Amino acid sequence: MNTTPVNTNFSPDDYSIVPAKTFADLRIGDVFRAPSRTLTDAHASAFQAVSCDNHPVHYDVEWARKHGHSAPVVHGLQVLAFTAPGATLFPHYIGEIFISFTELSCHFLKEVHSGDTLYSSLEITDLIDQGDTGLVVTAVTVHNQRSELVLSGQHKYLLKQ
């Protein structure tokens, strides 16, 4: 016999990590940060397996040094993945109004190596009302532990109004 009391006030529909926002609630300048992450050789190896990118700059220490790198270089697309909105709380705020991730761009500014700690963030730079929908434009940045900007770019998301 189950003697656990049932909470009749609980509904999974009301269970959220953060309060939901509407497009009108968002503001230019809102910042959504991801937790810092220190890259390891295991991360690079896993990404290499998924991406099938076997260029020796990513895994061959001697090849990398011979070609002017201090160590193997983390895949640029792996660094870009650190800007995924899901790494922040942003999708939890907009979950009910999210339609699609429509566009991204980026510039790789500095090399990233195993052992580097990365700090990613999204900052809303524009909110474009399109009637029934709204477009959110964010600047994306990734800094390393030396406060160097290693990636900058932009994401766009389409939301319901």
TrEMBL record:
Q: Identify the residues that the record assigns to the MaoC-like domain, covering every copy.
A: 28-142
Task: Please list which residues make up the signal peptide.
Answer: none
Q: Name one Pfam family in it.
A: MaoC_dehydratas
Family matches, as InterPro entries: HotDog_dom_sf, MaoC-like_dom, MCH/BMMD
Q: Which SUPFAM superfamilies match?
A: Thioesterase/thiol ester dehydrase-isomerase
Lineage, please? Answer: Bacteria, Pseudomonadati, Bacteroidota, Cytophagia, Cytophagales
Q: Which Gene3D superfamilies match?
A: Hotdog Thioesterase
Put simply, this protein is called: MaoC family dehydratase
